[in-house]
Specification:
The chain has 245 residues and is mainly α. Helices cover 89% and strands 0% of the residues.
Length: 245
């Protein structure tokens, strides 16, 4: 029960950080636009480094086939996001309206991604509290810009401010603890090889989020000092892993 409370608190913190991002972008939109890229670059450095320095080696010790599941996690999250954004927009050959393309469909993709985040929380904390905390630090930090992005996309999709805030909180925030809640009870039935496979798949998903989702978004911004915040995320992960070991 103590472990369950810990992981639910961690995933709920992600929801809270998302809500903070939505509230702040409502009040201080100019500041958020300038600073959110630094949160994203720090989170990218943290997530990628934690995956390669701790999650992947840990999964290899638990399951020799972890590289297969690592690849599956990476490709699985990519294909899931791709199908949600493409198929939902062009089902049966019908092109979706411009507002859906810019707002609602990407928000659905973010909602699914946040649900997977919740499952990742459950898996990593089930392996060990240290593993869970390592993953959670980077994941929580990337929830702030994710909340901002989801809200902004929904507004661009023609949804008025209050509804956009509620929908963004549900898609990018509440879906994370919900994913943890539905996944955690089933993990207790699994042995070490199965947990190792899930941990490898989670690491693959985190590498995808950092390398294929956050880093390209950072490059599009072309802001100064993003390399410094990226390096800070990498350094933070290295220090935490070394101290933990």
């Amino acid at each position: 029960m103590g472990a369950f409370i810990t992981v639910m608190l961690a995933s709920s913190m992600a929801c809270v950080v998302t809500a903070i991002g939505i509230v702040i972008v409502n009040r201080y939109s100019d500041w958020v636009k300038k600073q959110s890229v630094h949160f994203m670059s720090f989170a990218a450095g943290m997530l990628i480094s934690v995956s390669f320095l701790h999650l992947i080696p840990e999964s290899l010790e638990m399951n020799a086939l972890s590289p297969v599941f690592l690849l599956a996690g990476f490709l699985g999250l990519y294909l899931s996001n791709r199908l949600l954004t493409v198929y939902a927009c062009h089902a049966h050959g019908i092109a979706c309206p411009e507002d859906h393309a810019k707002g609602i469909t990407p928000a659905l993709g973010i909602g699914f991604h946040s649900l997977v985040d919740g499952v990742i929380y459950a898996v990593t904390f089930r392996v060990s509290v240290f593993t869970g905390v390592l993953a959670a630090i980077g994941m929580v930090l990337h929830e702030f810009p994710e909340g901002v992005i989801t809200y902004t996309l929904l507004q661009r999709g023609g949804i008025e401010r209050k509804k956009a805030a509620v929908y963004a909180l549900l898609a990018a925030g509440a879906s994370t603890p919900f994913g943890t809640l539905i996944a955690y009870p089933f993990l207790g039935m699994l042995g070490q090889p199965a947990l190792g496979a899930l941990l490898a798949a989670s690491a693959g998903a985190l590498v995808y989020v950092g390398a294929s989702h956050l880093l390209p978004a950072i490059e599009e911004e072309e802001k100064k000092y993003t390399l410094i915040s990226l390096a800070a995320g990498v350094l933070t992960a290295v220090v935490i892993v070394l101290v933990g070991h």
